[in-house]
Write the structure tokens for this entry.
Amino acid sequence: MKNISQISAVLFFIMISAACSFNVPWDIMDDYNGVSVVMRVNPDDADVLLNGRLIGAAYEFSSAGAALRLASRQNELVFKKRGFREEAIDLRTYSSRHITLKVVLQSESSPDSEAEIALPEGPPAYEAKSEPTPVQPDEKPLTVEQESLTEVTLTVIPEETAVYIDGKFWGLAPAEGKSAILRLPPGKYDFAAFKPGFRIYSKEVTVPKQDAFTLAIALQK
């Protein structure tokens, strides 16, 4: 009798263990206090980390039947994929037991990062015939007898235009409405003017043998 009682006790224990381990379908587990998480992630092959531990790819949990089942909402999910910014979700911020996550990972080169602005190309710089040698406007480009020079009144529009004489940098044009005075020997000169955003001015000018001469330069866009 004692052996029969022991066998009965063992059989009862086995039956209880089997009942406890029986896989009850999710939809009838009314007394279960856990949560289910469905993941709709783009891209769907992103890695899923649960509390820092890799548990699979997002597409493996993309339907209700394949939802991730957790005992509570005290968990964090992180979605990662190379070339994309990782996204972390704290499940404690949700109140429902059935959670559907819709996550779109942003590319590391997404438009919200600062993009370089391509500046429009300006007109080609004027190529001087020789190495530019800055000369102050009130200086004499050439050393000749004072009485043989012609006083040239130069006006240039717009202001701060670079002026070249015979390929050499003379200086920047004065402010609009003002003139510069040059003293040049009579003869032919190549005048050129350049400013970004305007067409290059280039013209051969004959400075006459007289006391005064006026030269007006106006750049065109």
